[in-house]
Amino acid sequence: MTASDRTLLTGWFSFRDGEATAGDVLALNRVQCVLDHAGHAYDTAWSPAFRPDALHLDDVDPQAYGSLVFVCGPLHGPQVADLHRRFPHCLRIAVGTSVIRPGSPAVTGFHRILARDGPALEPVRDLSARAPAAPALPVVGVILTRGQREYGGRRRHEETADRITRWLLAKDCARVELETRLDTKDWRLCATPGQLDSVLERLDLVVTDRLHGLVLSLRAGVPALAVDPVESGAKVTAQARSCGWPALVAAEDLDDGRLEHWWDWCLIEGTDTARRIRAGFRSGRTPDNADGLLRALTGRPPEDGRPAPGGHWMPHPGNTVSHERPESPG
């Protein structure tokens, strides 16, 4: 094989200070699929910031290629124009690109442009539309906190969040960062609980170190991989116990092995367990503290003769906290 038989695939995903968008990479996949089917030899140049271990444009020997293809994105700017200066001997083709200024050096340096749009051009469907379909991946909501200063020296929130996010970075999944805080002025946040419910119900899994991250996920019938960020356990542990939910990791026991174990459990067995717990929530069979509120307000004893559910705190000396555990839902 001679240099004239090999093609270098480039795009905005190739530049050191460029970026890789999902559309650009899917367009690249479509081009690679066509070349693979034809048996045409090629290499792909990637930004070192995006793929440190791949072939980088700065390290390429231009003489190793007979053609250069620029895939997707707009044809403009000095970075694109520099390709013409660096690969003057190559056949240079742009495919699936937008032409903004036809007379610019970035455009005129190509021997042929198979544009998706431009002045006086009939638009052509973007290359990403026919890219090979990828396998479905888990959609994972991530609900973390670095606050809760009230726990003082028992706080492990920063190291917990850092450990979880480093681990998640290596997971092949679609991550969605979520916040339980509601806001009517910030479009990025949900304004009502119903809006958050609608997001949670569409997830496969939630990873969280928040009490309501756990409870609201189970309320939506979605398994939650819960981590208690307070040393020796606090409210997240208490809620996992109250709900009968096993996928819990203590801050002092947090490691990749435990996270992997509960990740697998949540995606296999956990979905059915979470749905059973949701059914228990909705059935109303399991009492909670609201059931005893009116009795506490009026001083009347329970009509059914049963003690009030849950812990009960009497705020004066000599009283104790009872720790009755309601029956597990579902």
Give the helix tally: 9
| H/E element sequence | EHEEHEHEEHEHEHEHEHH
Strand order of the largest sheet: 2-1-3-4-5
The value of Rg in angstroms is 28 Å
Low-confidence stretches: 318-330
Percentage of helical residues?
25-40%
Give the overall silhouette. elongated
Mean pLDDT: 89
Provide a concise account of the structure shown:
The protein is built from 9 helices and 10 strands. With 330 residues, the chain is of the alpha/beta class.
Explain this structure.
Helix 6 (211-219) runs parallel beside helix 7. The longest helix is centred in the last third of the chain and has 28 residues, at 256-283. This protein is α/β, with parallel strands linked by helices. It has a five-stranded parallel β-sheet with strand order 2-1-3-4-5, covered by helices on one side. The chain has a five-stranded parallel β-sheet with strand order 7-6-8-9-10, with helices on both faces. It contains nine helices and ten strands. The protein is elongated.
